[in-house]
Amino acid sequence: MNAPLVLxxxxxxxxxxxxxxxxxxxxxGDGGYLxxxxxxxDGAEARLRALGRDSIDRSPLHVVVGRRxxxxxxxxxxxxxxxxxxxxxxxxxxxxMVPSRSGDGDDGPVVSLTMPAARPLRLLCREGExxxxxxxxxxxxxxxxxxAEVGVRFTSSEVALIVDGGICRGAGPTVVDCTTSxxxxxxxxxxxxxxxxxxxxxxNRRRKWFARRSxxxxxxx
Length: 221
Fold this sequence. Notes:
The chain has a single domain (about 5-215), classed as Alpha-Beta Complex (DHBP synthase), CATH 3.90.870.10. The chain has seven helices and ten strands. By secondary structure, the chain is α/β, with parallel strands linked by helices. The model has no long low-confidence stretch (mean pLDDT about 90).
């Protein structure tokens, strides 16, 4: 059986064409390689989990965006706290859980969104559409970080191609639940929890400052 095609830098057009044809591709992400489908593909989550079998991380799948507008369009609520976190942490290893605009289908009532630090993946989403992704893992739970290892696990009929981003090391994204107020860190990855706390604290101070400035009785400066 043929192995998936491996794409080097500057060949995003082939990856975009495969995604437009609802094919699965492998992409470099924050902390390891991911299987990806165009978001909105029928049964995307079921397809990725069936294909990945024991290789796909069993945690909820994420949706990757390349622009803030793509993320806002997928959420039914984009709170001030969500805005403060993403303003400071995106692009970067931060995944936020927000209420889904669709509220049904593969997303369910909540969707996890990320704008990754990994530039090849981010550019694919900027040039195309958001992607539904699942992290690839070895049987011991360690992330798959080498594109060569992805190539020996799948055939070209399963995974159309691999976007070669080199070795992808790291702890993966920190997951913050923004469906509650204040937001709650559900998983600590590459982004320390203290960074999340600091961003929320600074955002709260900024809101209070603007609230004081907007009151009619606030002193002139």
